[in-house]
Design brief:
This protein has 360 residues and is α/β, with parallel strands linked by helices. The protein contains 14 helices and 13 strands. The strands form two sheets. The chain has a seven-stranded parallel β-sheet with strand order 3-2-1-4-5-6-7, with helices on both faces. Helix 7 packs across helix 11.
């Protein structure tokens, strides 16, 4: 069997917020790593991370952090450090290995090319989680797309004509290996959660806030980052049913998730960055037995029950109102699907798919 290596971007859980990493990205990687699928895992951090790194980031036995001293200098040195780090990692990867890249971008494209040119026996595979298509001109995204399509194989979270179909599989997310049983919904409450990145294109924040300000019998809880905090505070102060929690530690976030009934996924379909990805919050909330309300219909969720609502403001309001007025008996058909999701998207399922791609 090939030596299987995972390239990703993670830090120990308690350091994720301190260094501005994505909780969703780190959770995805740790979920995928949970079943022992990889012989080695290497992490290289985003360009904006600099300064002296905490020692515990190097002591985590789940991965090896490649972090060059140039990052401590700041400025242009911090950005140049990633190229040096990719060269260091190139030397660590043995011939005949199978490498799986978490996305393909500035942090790993040079490593991809080095391996392709100078270690052609290494198998290059890409997990495509986020990709923003660009209609005109030629930029880095077009280069990354060409490299993605020249990889040996791909696992894509969303289907798109942009990606090569040969030796490609669609899997919208990964459920971690765990013996823990998450609480089921026994009694339905009209309580909703909006979490994660809260920008307009990702969360439709202003529309969601306006909608729930008109639905006083529905509770709205919000946690995350990159949202308009002034707007969030205004609504939270004015509307007793709207609660702004800020960015919560993961343990506190899970407690909040288990206290609500509905998870909102309100991506704006007009924005191109929402066409080639899949919201990790949907898989996570389904795994935790919550009911999903989404502005997208996802073919990759075949067999899973969830609500699809319109993203237009007035229709969004009327459809949320309609859902909240359904009987408990009707709503419970959409709850407690953690077992269905685990069967379809577990880390073991991903391991089988990766093995199949590598052997193809």
């Amino acid at each position: 069997m090939k030596h299987r290596i995972f390239w990703t971007c993670v830090l120990p859980e308690h350091l994720i917020a301190r260094y501005g990493l994505s909780f969703a990205a780190c959770n995805f990687s740790f979920n995928l790593m949970s079943d022992g699928a990889f012989d080695r895992v290497y992490s290289i951090l985003p360009l904006y991370v600099g300064g002296k790194m905490q020692q515990e980031a190097f002591d985590d036995n789940r991965f090896e952090l490649v972090y060059d001293k140039w990052r401590e200098k700041g400025g242009v040195w911090k950005k140049l450090a990633t190229f040096k780090e990719q060269f260091v990692l190139f030397r660590k990867i043995p011939k005949e290995a199978s490498v799986w890249f978490y996305n393909l971008n500035t942090l790993d494209a040079l490593l991809f090319l080095f391996l392709k040119w100078f270690k052609p026996s290494v198998q290059l595979n890409v997990i495509v989680l986020d990709f923003t298509p660009v209609d005109k001109g030629f930029g880095l995204n077009q280069l990354y797309l060409r490299l993605i399509n020249r990889a040996h194989g791909r696992i894509c979270l969303a289907d798109s004509e942009l990606f090569c179909k040969k030796n490609s599989v669609i899997l919208p997310g990964v459920v971690p290996h765990t013996d823990e049983k998450f609480p089921e919904i026994k009694t339905v409450k009209t309580s909703f959660l909006l979490s994660g990145v809260l920008s307009e294109e990702i969360a439709m924040l202003s529309i969601v806030l306006e909608t729930f300000s008109k639905l006083p019998d529905c509770e709205l809880h919000i946690t995350g980052s990159k949202g308009d905090e002034d707007l969030l505070k205004q609504y939270a102060e004015r509307c007793v049913n709207i609660h702004w929690h800020g960015q919560l530690p993961f343990k506190d976030y899970l407690e909040l998730l288990h206290s609500i009934t509905f998870q909102l996924s309100t991506r704006d379909p007009k924005f191109p960055e929402n066409q080639c990805n899949f919201p990790s919050k949907i898989i996570e909330a389904l795994h935790h037995n919550r009911i999903i309300v989404s502005t997208f219909e996802y073919p990759q969720l075949k067999g899973v029950k969830y609500f699809t609502v319109d993203s237009e403001k007035e229709r969004f309001y009327s459809e949320i109102k309609k859902i909240s007025s359904l009987s408990e008996e009707e709503l419970l058909h959409y709850a407690n699907q953690g077992g269905v999701v685990e069967k379809s998207f577990s880390a073991a399922v991903w391991l089988n798919v990766m093995t199949r791609i590598e052997n193809s």
